[in-house]
Amino acid sequence: MPSDHDVVLCDACFERIRWAITVNGRRQAVNADPDETGNLAVHRDGTGTLKVRVLTKERPTLEHAEWQAMPHAANGCRGLRPRASSRPGRRAAVRPGNWRWVR
């Protein structure tokens, strides 16, 4: 059973969730408690990051220290948004305007 130190409440439905990283590097919310009907395999890597993969035909069983979980979006929660990054979005540094050449 995983520990509860990384459990947060969903902003929309107030259910217990954990944020994990997919194999593509995206964040995905999973239900905090293990679920035998879920299609995700979740584990903590060597740095302590929660990683998630989908159980597929090629790898249908849990491996090593993985536990089975359900994606939180499968509950029908539509308000999921990962927390904003501390890095601001990329914007143009110069405002558009009328440019005149001075001679």
Topology:
Elements: E1 8-9, E2 16-21, E3 27-31, E4 40-44, E5 50-54, E6 67-69
Structure, described:
The chain is mostly beta strands. It has no helices and 6 strands. The chain has strands at residues 8-9, 16-21, 27-31, 40-44, 50-54, 67-69. The strands form 2 sheets. Strands 1-2-3 form a 3-stranded antiparallel beta sheet, with no helix packed on it. It has a 3-stranded antiparallel beta sheet with strand order 5-4-6, with no helix packed on it. Strand 1 (8-9) and strand 2 form a beta hairpin. The chain is elongated and about 75 Å long. The chain starts with 7 loop residues before the first strand and ends in a 34-residue tail after the last strand. 14% of the residues are buried. The mean pLDDT is 83.
Briefly characterize the structure:
This protein is mostly beta strands and 103 residues long. It has strands spanning 8-9, 16-21, 27-31, 40-44, 50-54, 67-69.
- SSE string: EEEEEE
Please tally the β strands and state the result.
6
Major sheet: size, sense and barrel closure?
Answer: 3 strands, antiparallel
**Helix percentage range:** under 10%
- Span between N and C termini? 74 Å
Structural class: mainly beta
Query: Hey, roughly how much beta strand do the residues contain?
Result: 25-35%
Across the major sheet, the strand order is 1-2-3
Discrete helix count: 0
Residue-averaged pLDDT, rounded?
Answer: 83
Q: Uncertain spans, ≥5 residues at pLDDT below 50?
A: none
Radius of gyration equals 20 Å
Shape: elongated
